[in-house]
Amino acid sequence: MRLLLMGPPGAGKGTQAAVIAERFAVPAISTGDIFRANVAEQTALGVAAQAYMDAGEYVPDEITNAMVADRLAGGDCADGFLLDGYPRTPQQVAELDAILDRVGVGLDAVVLLEADTDELVGRLLARSQEQGRADDTESVVRRRLEVYAAETGPLADHYAERDLLARVDGLGQVHEVTERILTVLTSAAAQRTATSAP
Ligand code: AMP
User: Fold this and answer.
1) Cα–Cα distance between 72 and 58 in angstroms, integer?
2) Largest Cα–Cα separation, the chain
3) CA–CA separation, 2 vs 4, rounded Å?
4) Residue of the nearest CA to atom 14 in ligand 1?
5) What is the distance in A from the centroid of ligand 1 to the CA of 193?
6) In degrees, to the nearest 5, what angle opens at C-alpha 183 toward C-alphas 182 and 188?
7) Could you tell me where the beta strands, DSSP code E, fall in the chain?
8) Which of 67, 84, 152, 184 has CA atoms 20 to 30 A from the CA of 32?
9) What is the full per-residue pLDDT of the chain (198 aa) written as tens digits?
């Protein structure tokens, strides 16, 4: 299973990614988590990424793409993966396609978790109080949502044109959202089997 989990900040991607990846026995790869771990350890990658993250901006594609190419080359990704928070720009879409082309595989599905903006702002500000993430202050939260709408939102149409997109309502209890995701993935898998049948 090669999956992408897309959606605005605060939609619950990280929580769902962990559950879904476990269900399909694939690694959950969150670019945000990898960046945060590198910032915490002040590696060269972390130092390069930190100012962008703190401002709610995207880390440049060059840096992000190299990091993901490296991670996907890991042996644990050979049979599948769930990418959470990548790709987020057209250049990242192209890089991911190139990486997968090189090994002759394709994506199985792209899940888009949706939620309305006021709900997202509320969730992100609550998380900021709980976890104290530097990129969860109100102005940065609003900037992150703007950047998502401008740069990443349009990628959904691209994946819809490729017949890979499944939209899922991100509102509700964690287990309800998980069930919705599993339902759309099951029907996507059934559709693929039907179209690839001789
Ligand atoms: P996240 O936890 O996925 O919301 O990511 C937190 C921050 O990490 C983002 O606001 C960006 O600054 C950075 N980041 C994570 N993934 C990407 C990506 N695919 N492209 C660029 N920046 C990213």
Assistant:
1) 20
2) 55
3) 7
4) 32
5) 34
6) 95
7) 2-6, 28-30, 81-84, 109-114, 165-169
8) 184
9) 999 999 999 999 999 999 999 999 999 999 999 999 999 999 999 999 999 999 999 999 999 999 999 999 999 999 999 999 999 999 999 999 999 999 999 999 999 999 998 889 888 888 888 876 767 788 888 999 999 999 999 999 999 999 999 999 999 999 999 999 999 998 877 776 777 666
Residue 19, both tokens: 């559950």
Q: Tokens 């702002």, residue?
A: 121
Contact 71, 77 (CB under 8 A): yes
Structure tokens at 134: 């530097």
The verdict on the CB of residue 170 being under 6 Å from ligand 1 is: no
Residue 24 Cβ contacting ligand 1 at under 6 Å: no
Catalytic site positions: 13, 88, 127, 133, 144
Residue of 69, 92, 72 whose CA lies nearest to 152? 92
Choose one of 34, 35, 145 to mutate for the ligand 1 pocket test, by most ligand atoms within 8 angstroms of C-beta: 35
Question: Is the distance from the beta carbon of residue 65 to the nearest atom of ligand 1 less than 6 Å?
Answer: no
pTM (2 d.p.): 0.92
Domain ranges of the chain: 2-30+80-196
The Cα 131–Cα 166 span in angstroms is 30
Give residue for tokens 């509320």: 122
